[in-house]
Known about the structure:
The structure holds 2 protein chains of 2 kinds. Chain A is an alpha/beta fold. Chain A has helices at about 1-20, 30-45, 60-65, 80-85, 120-125, 135-140, 160-175, 175-180, 195-205, 215-220, 240-255, 290-305, 320-330; strands spanning about 20-25, 50-55, 70-75, 90-105, 115, 150-155, 195, 210-215, 225, 230, 235-240, 275-285. The N and C termini of chain A lie far apart (about 45 Å). Chain B has helices spanning about 1-40, 45-50, 65-95, 100-115, 115-130, 135-160, 165-175, 180-205, 210-215, 235-240, 245-280. The longest helix of chain B has about 40 residues, at about 1-40. The interface of A and B includes residues 40, 202, 203, 218 and 219 of A.
Amino acid sequence: MKKLFLAAFVLAATVASAQTVQINGAGATFPNPIYSKWFDEYHKVHPNVEINYQPIGSGGGIRQLSAGTVFFGASDGPMTNEQITGAGFRILHVPTVLGGVVPVYNIPEVSAELRFTGKVLADIFLGKITKWDDAGIRSLNPGVSLPNVDITVVHRSDGSGTSYIWCDYLSKVSPDFKKTVGVATSVNWPTGVGAKGNEGVAGLVRQTPGSIGYVELIYALQNKISYGSVQSSDGEFVRASTETVSNAAAVAAKNMPKDFRVSITNAPGHDVYPISSFTWLLLQESPKDVARSRIMVDFARWAISGGQGFAPQLGYAPLPKEVVALELEALNRVKQ
Amino acid sequence: MTANLRRRKWFSRFFEILCGLAVVIALIPLAMILFYVIKEGAGALNWDFFTKMPKPVGESGGGMANAIVGTLILIGIAALFAVPVGGICGIHLAEYPGTKFSSVVRFAADVLNGVPSIVVGIFAYGILVLPVKRFSAIAGGVALGLLMVPIVVRTTEELIRLVPGGLREGALALGATRSRAVFGVILPAALPGILTGILVALARVAGETAPLLFTAFNNRFWSTSLTQPIASLTVQVFTYAISPYDDWHRQAWAGAFLLVMIILTLSIAARFAVRRLERMNRS
């Protein structure tokens, strides 16, 4: 009976696989809300294409792409030169949207929106500032009565592009942070507790009074977690939004490198959110499987043009027009 | 004398109560788990949960239809892999209990039983995922199957031994060869026992998450293909439970409830099979 049952399953499986094309990808959790929306919408228009994206973290995505176990990857930190050499094949970085990483906190006593500078955030994440009523935080937030409560730092435990962006920014504004922690998808944190994925950090901050963490903007919005504004390189306190993140991209769009691997944290200009970043889809430039490659290129073209309409409602900033033009050209390089 | 007797009775009473207390303490976690899972999970179950696919991140609604079918397929593959291997090993151990080979097999089964499931997962990733460069339902099923084998081996062995010796002697006395006696008489008589072993093992692996993370991976879509990643209840519950979304938490509880029900059903079925065997043994 059981065998019969399984035989039926196997039969069903072969029938199903003849009709639909499945493409597997893995990587960043940062763009997962919009990617899952995109793959869902794309599936509605192309019912025979199923793009299965699993948010295992940028580090994991790069690793699995290099091992060849997934067809495409995704990351919020561009791959390093060593990582590209290690993969052994050419990889195209396709910027898809922009996002901002925001400092989220849970202080039940405080309802006002807090202000931070890069220096103060760096000191908190270095374990130098340990109380919420520290003079450094108080002087930025006059009029807010901060409690004498220990700060619980929440950071990522997995290889994370969000960590990369966060550390990239803090390293630019704090030499101390650059020296002790540095910039990578996985770093050695001197203090705090780890959580897996953006969703893990958001969940832990929500459950832990006195905590501070960092997540992509949408995770703060969807979960109604308070997040602070951050001082830009022009000295303004800027709150993350699709507009202020777009402003950061506009600066970068003017001098985009050919391989799209660019950091836009701490960008100059008016009303620019300093912890902004592109997030990239990682495509193989000359894969063996041409049929799947054709679908991925078609998907990427749609995502950076028509798909951009979904970005604002999910808290992401759409790509600048100049960048889209460059990308459409670059996608022609992919073998299909 | 009476004083002594009274003291001994009192002593016996004291330890009886202590034993009873220990049983209650041991049962409290089980009762609490069941109570909590039922309380949170039963209400979260609805028709959508069984029939709908997962929604994009952060959107409410949807269900786990693909994960439910995925779990069934995965434990199906695991059974297909573990039952022949484990069953045959178990029969051998029961028929030739004293040989050196048997003690080696028994030891190997016990060691395998102790290997952490995540290690089995990494092993399956190394031999079934990396070489073919693809996560697949087969890799996940085999990882679960590896965890099943030792349980099937040992329970099959134990339960074949429960078959009355008179049956074997009767068969041999009537002139049957040893293989005829094993396959024609003892095996049919022990079938409920072997089935029990399989059910217990299935119940054990149906709740595994770790060996699936890097073998069966996960799948957002409906997939029954054995060579593609596949969703499973346990991985889905894990993903949803660590998420910050309330609706996903609700669905994680519903998934947990369904898992507990599946495992409870398998365990109860196993108990009935054993009871039948015991009844036969007595008569």
